[in-house]
Design goal:
The protein contains 40 helices and 37 strands. The protein is α+β, with helices and mostly antiparallel strands. The protein folds into 3 domains: about 450 residues, Clc chloride channel (Orthogonal Bundle), CATH 1.10.3080; about 180 residues, CBS-domain; about 400 residues, no CATH class. The strands form 12 sheets. Strands 17, 18, 19, 24, 25, 26, 27, 28, 29, 30, 31, 32 and 33 form a 13-stranded antiparallel sheet that branches. Helix 4 packs parallel to helix 7, helix 7 packs antiparallel against helix 8 and helix 24 packs across helix 37. The two termini are about 55 Å apart. The N terminus and C terminus are likely disordered.
Amino acid sequence: MSVLLHDHSGDCATRSSVVDNRKDSDINDQLPDKNISDDSAVYKNWLKQQPSRLDWDRWVMMGMIGFSVGFIGFLMHQLIDVISEVKWDKAAEFIEDHDFGLAWIWVIGYSVLFVIASSVPVVYYRPSAGGSGIPELIGFLNGTVVRHIFNVKTMVVKLFSCVFAVGAGLPIGPEGPMIHLGSLVGAGLSQFKSQTLKFKLPFFERFRNTEDRRNFISAGAAAGVASAFGAPVGGLLFSMEEVSSFWNMKLSWQTFFACMVSTFTTDLFNSAFEGFKYQGDFGLFKAEKNILFQISHGIGLNILVFIPTVILGIMGGLLGAVFTFLNLKIARFRRLWIAKIKSKQWKNIGKVSEPVLIMIITGTASVFLPAAFPCTSFECSFSSEGFRKKCLTDAQHPLHTERDVQNYTCPAFDTVTINGTQYTNSSYNEVATLLFVTGEKAIHHLFSRDTAYELGYASLCSVLVIYFLLACWSAGTAISSGLVVPMLFIGGTYGRIIGRAMVDMFGFHSTGYWAWMDPGAFALIGAASFFGGVSRLTMSLTVIMMEITNDIQFLLPIMVAIMVAKWVGDFATHPLYHALLELKCIPFLDSEPVILHEGSKAINLELFRAGDAMFSPAIVVHKVESVSRLTHLLLDTPHGGYPVVTKTDADHEVFSGLISRALGAKGEQAVAWIHSIIDSKLVIKPSSPIYPQWRSPTVPVLMQFFVFNVENPMEMKQGSRPCVSQKGPYSYRVYQTKENITWNSNSTVSYNKFTKYVFDVDSSCSSCDPRTDNVTLPNIPLVILSQVSKKYPGASLIFSMIFAHFKEDFFRVNTVEELLWGYKDPVFEYFADLKRKYHLSFIPDIDPKFRMMENNTYDGVTTTYTGASDISRAAVWTQWKGRSDVGLWNSPWANMLNGSDGMQFPPQTSTEDILYAFYVQLCRSMSFVFDSHTKIHSVNTLRFTYPEELWQNASVNPANTGFCPNGCFPSGILDASVCKGPSASSVPAIVASHPHFYQGDPSLVNNVEGLNPVKEEHGTVFDIEPNFGLHLHLSLRLQLNLNIEHVKFLVQMAGVKEVILPIMYFNNTVTVDASSAHKMKSVLIAMKAVPFVSVTNEIVVLLSREDIFSSRENLSLPEEELHTNRLDYCQMHQGYYPDAERLNAQLERYAGESRFQEMYIDLSPYVNHSAPTVQETFSLHRTYIIFRTLGLRHLTVVDKRNRVRGIITRKDLMGFQMEERIHKCLHNSHEAQEMQSTSSSSGHRPSVEA
């Protein structure tokens, strides 16, 4: 088990939280809701109008919830039974005829159809309906809001997805989804309104607050358990023990009433219907029908039963931990695998395909696995040799075999009755008895009494392994599924194995001292142990097991097994549902925090203060605050609430209450509002926050040059393969400025970008000096002119003589600086003089100075969209050098101006997007596709890189034909010669590629010795923050190569083999510093906070109403003389859904116009004056308990004079955050002690000022 204790997939229970620091940013997607009502003036005014101390309507609502949940439970079970019975009845007919092929086709086809119908709505329509929903429910009732889990669409998808999946025969159960459905009913019915269905009824309006809604959700979840198991007491205890974090005695009575009504409703309708067919027994509650796994009779216990019970408890704890471990491993592997798929369509297909694959495996095993096992005779059987005497006992319940076991292909003959005992010469298949039925019926067989020899070791062990793995795999797939039935099945199977072993060792005893050794009884204990080992439930599980079996005599063994399983499981892992909270990144505050120091030492939080965990300084607001400041707080800070202060006579600002920033909108409208805010910050305009960086980036931009040196020039001239070595990096700081900026009327802007390179010693290699470092390379001007000569017959001979005249050799030694920024070439200078003196038009334009790079140059006039009319087009090029296309390539597609300059991409970038950037150096657009998820300075980013097809030869990718002006090169080579215009350089002598020919044709690497292409070092990557579309890290790598071709009569190149030889490559790298990244993250946190909360005192609501703005002078008048409007409680809480663009425009206007600096809002009526506070010296442990018990979002920390010192949020109390602050506190304390010790030993007193 050591692997479980040290693997994060198991999430060792000694960790302080179910959330670790790697999920920091994901946590912000699940923000806390509060569970107590506010105490503002508008709330009190509203409260006065409500009925006082009347609870009849609360009881009515609980009854309505119970009835609704019970009826849904009835519908679910009836539908599941109908679907499963049709499947197995027809399959049995085929099996009886020994037509296995048709049986398999029927089972697979029928089941897969329903699995697809189960999975598709979850994947494409409502992902929040997937799984059991219990972790999300636990998180919500702990104080966290998870989007869409209480939506009517989720409810519909949840119901039918569960029905179809369970009915199809997947190894899952309906109980978990039933709990979620119950909470959905509680959440929706209690409010009597629906945003999705667009209605709001004037009933039960007083329940429209967070506290009552939470209580009704808890009751609905309990009613779901009661309906699913027929266990009203178990439902109450389950909600109290596992689901709810906040509870009181009054809620217990009301929840119990809801559970009672729910169980009654389900049992009442089930009594009359079976498969929706009326049975005529309406109101007749039969034990075998209403008790889920009715035990036929009880048996006496013996103290010795606790020995195997403890063994079963240990097995339950260990196997439960393994189940949790494997389930999390599979879930993380699934998430990683899905993330690697770049197409959204294929992602969804992959999600749907997984449960389909599980169903195919399950169906195949159900049909064919029983064939591998022989037929088994009934316990009470007869043959030609006579009647089997073993079943004849003196007990009231003789040893027997159940009559509803599955024959499969085994013969079924005659049955006779002698003295009340039935004998048969039929036989049955043990594996089919467990797999050829629904999970619930299989559990009935496992729990059956006096059937000691009905199931053997081979069948039980085989089914246990297969079902364990398939159930572990199924949980977490894209369907609505529960785990209760699989847990009971798995536990019952190994419990039955232990029971069978006891019978084989000590014999079967129907009466007397040893009668307790019944495999069915041990199956019950095993089921309880595994259920407890996975879920770690205790009280509720014990009661549920009693209520679903009616076996009160085994209460003590079940309790012992559950407790042992819990102890063993807690030693290894978190409970499954709590581990899933971490996997889903739902911030959950456990009942007791566990903080570790130095990896293993537990810290007592009573020894620390609230001030050690608080965020300080807290931003405060005054009771009368300017519109301008409130707007800036909303747009520029990440906080979800602000302490409100007032001034005392002593001019101290003391705490008066709390006001929230949160927006009342939910779902898509709130998300649209967030996107609108982000979009406004990304529009290119002088007032935009992005404009300074757009015009002249201050983020350090480095251009790192790596040059290649030919180590064997003489051998290469004689035809050998070139051998190169790499030098560098030679780093240059890049300074870019957009000049001559012109704002056009069509939402575009024109400019000319100036670029300058300055050598940076610090980021270069220690021995690198471009002025003195030499490199040996082929004479690049000679190679260029050699290719020019191929255009003119006989020119190569003339060029050869000219080269000889100037004593130009095939190799040349230059400094790195000369190679990069230029040197005068005598041959180039000679041809330039000829053209200038004699105006020879056939001589191309030649610059006497050859250079690989340009410095202090302009890119040419560029026109881009500003994004004002369409933010997705921000920074996208529309013209370059006066053209709307490139006009240099061979096809319209190749000539398109696609994308930006690579510094900015569309906001809300997703993994399915293809990004484009235009590169002036290559005169073409380049595409980028998603590669992986990354983090830069703890900010989540998407990594994009070149797609492989971008570099492929036209024979492999015909779309690249347009980029072959001089014929196509091997894959991995880009010809950018046309970019040089009509000059000597326009021949394909210099071509581009990835460094070291990464992603190129293997021949490119094989032809040059000394290359080693590696993705991490030679690939191009953009790490983009997807919400803003801005890159936090960039490594744009490009290699320039010399295309050496054979030219006749050019003696300088005689003997040189044709080869594409690397000259140099550059790495244009940009990394945003940590402070900028954290600022971006804070803005994201602030905006992501908006859509996940529904709270009181909303600053957004106040700012949306200009009619409540007033001057400070007016607000200083007595109340009766005020000339300003006030919002009442209903206006604050009627579900304000602002138009995103209008609201954002409002806020931008408030922030920009000076008149709003003189406009104020009186916040007094909206401040929550009962917001709890703690003093900074208050115990941190007790602070945690208060925060969790009250379900707070914020807790203000004050000093003894009630002055605000800081604020504590849920994130501050999460384990990883608290560990970091506690460790810092301990470190500072240790340093202080050392300083004091040093000071004392030196004979000096510590400085009072210090």
